[in-house]
Amino acid sequence: MAALTRVSGSVGLISLLNPPVNALSAAVRQGIVDTVRRAVSDPQVKSVVICGQNGVFCGGADIKEFGGHMSGPPLVPIFNTIEAADKPVVAAIEGSALGGGLELALACHYRITQSKARLGLPEVSLGLLPAAGGTQRLPRLIGVPAALDLITTGRHLTGAEALKLGIVDQVTDQNTVEAAVKFALSIPSGCNICRLHLSERPGVMQRVKKSAHGAIAPVACVQAVQAAATLPFTQGMQREQELMATLFGSGQARALQYCFFSQRVVSKWSSPSGSRWDTSKPKPVTKVGVIGLGTMGRGITVALALAGLSVVAVETQQQQMMAAQHAVSGMLERTARRRGVSLVGDQIRYSVELEAVADVELVIEAVFEDMALKEKLFKQLSTLCKADTLLCSNTSSLDIDHLASQTHSPQLVVGMHFFAPAHVMKLLEVVYGPRSAPQAVATAMELGKRMGKVSVAVGNCSGFVGNRMLMPYVEEASFLVEEGASPEIVDRALEEFGFPMGVFRMSDLSGLDVGWKVRKARGLVEPGQMSRVRQGRRYSPLGDLLCEQGRFGQKTGRGWYLYDSAGSREAQPDPWLQSFLEEYRARQGLVSRRIDSQEVLERCLYALINEGFNILQEGIAAGPEDIDMIYVFGYGFPRHRGGPMFYASQVGLAQVLQRLEHYQQLHPDIPHLRPSSLLRRLVSSGSPRIQRWREIIRMPHSSL
Ligand SMILES: CC/C=C\CC(=O)SCCNC(=O)CCNC(=O)[C@H](O)C(C)(C)COP(=O)(O)OP(=O)(O)OC[C@H]1O[C@@H](n2cnc3c(N)ncnc32)[C@H](O)[C@@H]1OP(=O)(O)O
Question: Is residue 605 part of a domain?
C-alpha cells in the first residue's frame, strides 16, 4: 500500500498506492510507517520524496473506516516521525492533497505542487477537525487568520493559491514528482519546520458560531486553532486530540459523512423502468437553448456559460431581452471574478425568435409556470428543433408526461428543475416521465454535473420530490399559527434546529403571492372566505387573506413580518398581524393554546418526513439519499442533520411513527399526518439502518 524505490542515486521515493484517491487506510498507514523507517535508516538515501500513484497525492483518511473499528497505526505518530526525520522529506502533490493528505504534506519539510492540484482541510464538512496535526501545523506555517479560514470552511485551494499563502514551496506545471526529486537533490540536510509567532483572533468564535447554525465542528476547529495560538506545539496537539474525541462519535459527524457518500450515491441513478446510470450513455451536448429570460432563465444561462457551453438565449420581447442581456453579463462577470475563472467571449447569442434554437442539441424551457403556455411552446419546439433535440422543462411542479405528449418525440422530454438563483444553488432535480428515454435522463444528469450541480433523478408527480414534501411542512406551520403559535415561534424553532430561515421568513423572502398563485391554480382559493375545510381536508386560508391585503412579504414591506421598507430584509414582529390572528381565531371559534418548539419541530418535520416515505413507496425517489440530498442542497435542511430521512433514522422510526399517530388522532382532518405504510413496514421490520431501506422498499408486500 506504499512502495519505496531509490531514484537519482540518493532520493528515496515513497509512493502511496490505494486507488482511486490513495486514502490513508490502515494498510496505507502501515505502508508509510515501513517505508519511512527503511528510507531513514538507509545510508544511501540522503533525502525522501513522498507522492501518490496515478496522479493523486492523497484524499485524506479513509472515511469508510470511520464507521467501524479503527485498526492500524494512527496518523499522529507517523507524521511526527516524518517531521522529526533528519533527512529532508519533500511532498510531491498532484491531483488532491485533502484532509489527512494535506496534513501528511504539512509534516514533510517541503512541499512541491502541481498548479492545478486541490489542497484543503475539508474535515469540518465531515463533522471533524484536522486532527493529525493540521490545526497546529497550518497556523504555524501561514498564520492564524488564513488557517482559520481554511480550517473552518474546509474550502479547497489551487496549487497557485497555496503558494501565495505560503503552504507550498514551489508550484510546477511540469512533472511534479520529477520536480520534487530535483528539489530534494538540491537541498542540504536538516529540516524546515516553520514556527510562526501566533496570536489569537478576537471575535472569530462569535462569527463562526453564528454561521454554523448549530454545527459543532466549526466551533471545535476554532478552539483547536486558538490552542495553536496560545499553547506550545505538544500541548496544542493534545488539545486537538481532545476536541477530536468529542466530534468523532457524534451524530453530526455521522450525518455529515452520510451526506458525503449520499452525494456520490445519487449520481448513480436508477429508475423503476430499469434504466440506470451505468447502462445509459449521455448524448454529447455543446449548444443549449434557453427559452424565457426571467429570473430562472437568466440564472440557467449563466450556469451553462460558466460550464463552457454555447447558449442561445431567447426572450420574446426586445426590451426584456435587452434587460436580460445586461443582467446576465453582470452576473457572469461577478461570478467569474468570485470563482477566479476567465470568461470565454461570445458564448451567448440572444434572440427574440424562437427559431434561433433550431440547431441546438438541448433546450431548457424557463417560461412562466403556466401549463397552456408551456404546452404551446413544446408543440412549437417539437416542430422546429432537430429530430433528436432534447426538450427540457424547468417547471417546478407541472406534469412532465403531459408536456411530453405535446411533442413528436415524448422520449426526448425530461424536467430539469433548477433552484433560484440557478447559477448559485447546487441542486438540480432531473425529472423523468414514464416515456423519457434513458439517454435523455443520462444527458440531463451529465449536463447538471458539468454545471457543478448535485443532480438527482426523480419520477414525475405534482411538485416532484422537493416541492411535494414542502407542502405538508408549510401547511403544518400555518395550522400551528391558527392554533396559537406566532410566525416568530415557528421560525425560531426551525432556525434553532439549523434551517437558515424558518417557514415564514422564507415565505416573506420568496413572496407570498407565489404560493397564492399555485393554490389558485389548484382551485383552493375562495376570495374573502374563511372556511377551513377545502377539497375535503383541513385548509388554512391565512396566507390567502394576507395576500388579499397586498401583504406579499419583503417586496411589499409586509407579509408574515413587518419590514422598514419594501425590499428591506430585517424582519420584525408585526403588531397588526397579532391582532389580525386574534380576530381570526375568535371568528373561527379557535381557542389559542401555548405551542412549544418540540411540537413545532415534530409537526412540521414529521409531516415532511412522512411525505418522504410516501415518495419512496411510490418509487418517485429511488432511495432515502435522493430525498436527503434534495433537501440539503435545495431547501436548506441542515447538513449536519443529514437530511430529513437520515434525521428520522436518528430520531428512531418507531418514535416518528408514534408521534405521527398521536398527532393524527388529534387532527384527523389532516391527511398528511396519517403515517405512511412504508414507515409502518420499516418499523415492523425492526427499523433497519438507512442503508438497508432500499431492500425493504423493493420487497413485495401486501397493502392489506
Ligand atoms: C485523524 C483524522 C485525520 C484526517 C481526517 C481526514 O482526512 S477526513 C478525509 C478528508 N478528505 C476528504 O474529505 C476528501 C474527500 N474526497 C473528495 O473530496 C473527492 O473524492 C476527491 C479526493 C476530491 C476526488 O474527487 P473525484 O470527483 O475525482 O472522485 P469522487 O469524489 O467521485 O471519489 C471517487 C471515489 O473515492 C471515494 N473516496 C474519495 N475520498 C475518499 C476518502 N477520503 N475515503 C474513502 N473513500 C473516498 C469516493 O467515495 C468515491 O467512491 P465511489 O465508490 O466510486 O463512489
Answer: no
Last residue of a domain, one of 409, 442, 459: 459
Burial degree of 194 (CB within 10 A; 0-12, 13-18, 19+): exposed
pLDDT tens-digit readout, 585-601: 999 999 999 999 999 99
Q: How many other C-beta atoms lie within 10 A of the C-beta of residue 520?
A: 14
**Hey, which of 1, 63, 156 would you mutate to test ligand 1's pocket, going by the most ligand atoms within 8 Å of its Cβ?**
63
Distance between CA atoms of residues 511 and 325, nearest Å: 25
Give the separation between CA 74 and CA 60, rounded to whole angstroms.
13
* Structural domain containing residue 34: 2-249
- For residue 281, give every residue at least 6 positions away whose Cβ sits within 8 Å of its Cβ, in sequence order, or none: 439, 442
**What's the 20 CA to ligand 1 centre distance in angstroms?**
9
pLDDT band, residue 345 (cuts 50/70/90): low
Q: Is 103 a catalytic residue?
A: yes
Q: What is the pTM of this model?
A: 0.95
CATH (domain of 65) = 3.90.226.10
**Which residues are 532's β-sheet partners?**
none
Q: The domain that contains 428 carries what CATH number?
A: 3.40.50.720
The residue whose C-alpha atom lies closest to atom 18 belonging to ligand 1 is 59
Is residue 78 domain-shared with residue 206, that is, in the same domain? yes
> Which of ligand 1's atoms lies nearest the C-alpha of 264?
55
Asked whether residue 18 falls in the same domain as residue 157, the answer is yes
The ligand 1 site (C-beta within 6 Å) comprises: 20-21, 23, 59-64, 75, 96, 98-100, 118, 122-123, 126, 128, 131-132, 264
Distance CA 113, CA 13 (A): 16
Res. 346 pLDDT band, cuts 50 70 90: confident
How many angstroms is it from 59 CA to the middle of ligand 1? 5
Q: Is the pLDDT of residue 64 over 70?
A: yes
Instruction: Out of 444, 459, 474, pick the residue that ends a domain.
Output: 459
Number of domains into which the chain is organized: 3
Q: Is 131 helix (H, G, I), strand (E, B) or coil?
A: coil
pLDDT of residue 318: 95
- Note whether residue 689 is domain-resident: no
Q: Which of 94, 123, 240, 361 is catalytic?
A: 123
List pLDDT tens digits, range 258-308: 999 999 999 999 998 889 999 999 999 999 999 999 999 999 999 999 999
